[in-house]
């Protein structure tokens, strides 16, 4: 999931060939920007999954009040 997310940002921002022997200064800046945004998105996704897991675990561990 993380590779797909980072790759999506890289494909959206970076222009040119990744495998070219020499990059221009603009391509280097685009690559750095894409990697930064990919990392931010991946971190946000991971934080969301952790929060979801915490809330779900808390809801399952709460005692249920029985009324008779």
TrEMBL record:
The chain crosses the membrane at residues 34-55. Keywords: Membrane, Transmembrane, Transmembrane helix. This is Uncharacterized protein.
């Amino acid at each position: 999931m993380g590779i797909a997310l980072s790759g999506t940002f890289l494909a959206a921002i970076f222009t040119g060939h990744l495998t070219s022997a020499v990059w221009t200064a603009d391509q280097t800046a685009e690559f750095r920007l894409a990697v930064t945004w990919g990392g931010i998105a991946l971190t946000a996704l991971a934080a969301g999954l952790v929060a979801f897991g915490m809330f779900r675990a808390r809801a399952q561990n709460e005692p249920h009040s029985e009324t008779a």
